[in-house]
């Protein structure tokens, strides 16, 4: 089964080797037919502490690293949307 990959923004980098990434998804409401935004926060493993608050990153599903970390940071996103692995 392929690993899930999500794109989001780092909202916290206070913990050692961990970043909190906010991932936003958009969908059309079934009744109102209006676009709705929902956000979810994921804790991701950042081995080298390279990513800071405000960075756009790509995270990938991985084995459990700790009680709450099931994702690892793959790389950063450039403004054009390309992935730059670190």
From TrEMBL:
Pfam families: Ribosomal_S17 (PF00366)
Biological processes per GO annotation: translation
HAMAP family, per the entry: Ribosomal_uS17_B
Gene: rpsQ
Function: One of the primary rRNA binding proteins, it binds specifically to the 5'-end of 16S ribosomal RNA.
InterPro entries per the UniProt record, alphabetical: NA-bd_OB-fold (IPR012340), Ribosomal_uS17 (IPR000266), Ribosomal_uS17_bact/chlr (IPR019984), Ribosomal_uS17_CS (IPR019979)
UniProt family annotation: Belongs to the universal ribosomal protein uS17 family.
Single GO molecular function: rRNA binding
Residues in coiled coil: none
Self-association state and partner proteins as the record states: Part of the 30S ribosomal subunit.
Gene3D superfamilies: Nucleic acid-binding proteins
GO cellular component: cytosolic small ribosomal subunit
Protein name from the UniProt record: Small ribosomal subunit protein uS17
Native source species: Amorphus orientalis
Entry keyword set: Ribonucleoprotein, Ribosomal protein, RNA-binding, rRNA-binding
UniProt xrefs under NCBIfam families: PRK05610.1, uS17_bact
